[in-house]
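Re: weekly structure request thread

Next one in the queue (320 aa):
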Amino acid sequence: MEHRPRDPGPGEARVRVHAAGMCGSDRDLHLGRRPAPYARYPLTPGHEWSGTVTAVGEGVPAALVGRKVVGEGLRDCAACAPCRAGEAGLCAAGYEETGFTLPGAMAPTLTLPARLLHTLPPDADLTAAAFLEPAARAAAAVLKARPLPGSRVAVIGSGALGLLAAQLLGAFSPSELTVVGTSPARADLSHRFGATRYRTWDQTAHLTDCDVVIDTAGAASTARAATSLLRPGGRLVLTGIPAPGAERLDPARVVARQLSIGTAFGATSRAWTHAVRAFTAARLTPLELLTHQLGIEEFERAVDLTGSGDPHVGRVLLRP
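Done, posted below.
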């Protein structure tokens, strides 16, 4: 279908898309496996993106034209109590998100509310900036975890979300930062993103004293397994949508050990600001996650690469 750019209406901006990322959620969307409340077909996917503003609608400063930007995905009503408290993911009007229920960025242009945009410096690398959406989700989990300097921290998952969380956690000066993954091949990359040690699950028997654990994998067994990595009184943060058939947490064990459990779904404006500032200050360097850049006509190949399970396949970017 031919792409027809949509002129921005009042309060909106049109962006020329530089790159759009492909992640597991996009693959699930393509395969029809994303839960019904979180998908609406037919749809142009693409919730991870970067670009340049080319036009603005009424009420939007003209100075925004020409600026490099990234943008929040969740579309909140900005009026209900959760939205006013900064929790767009709990909007009383219901779930709406770019690339899942509304047109996404796997197209030459994207038109969206200008209030969702975060501007970048003129010299920002837009290819690297396309990773700021998963970085914002990682930031949401890190901020929810509230790590203290000197904490013993573990991140479950050595994919993009886990490694970006590890890099953001480094700013809190943990005494130990362990990344737990499934493949030994991810060890070197994990260390480059700030991990002090890397463990596969068969090497975690003695890892039982963490102050904070962030589960970015969302596999069927990881939430339950994560509780065994925590010290009594430790904090667990779960991200994303858990896999179907996830093993249940033992409430007796959670209560007896006085564990605190939090969740992070999507990213708040605060988390986006945190990620963008870290990126601008060169404290967040996601470009090393990129292994493939493809044209939009290679969408099917991008889907296959993302679901390949190959530890040497990192993030895939599409160029509209």
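The radius of gyration is 19 Å. The longest helix spans residues 132-145.
Next request, please.
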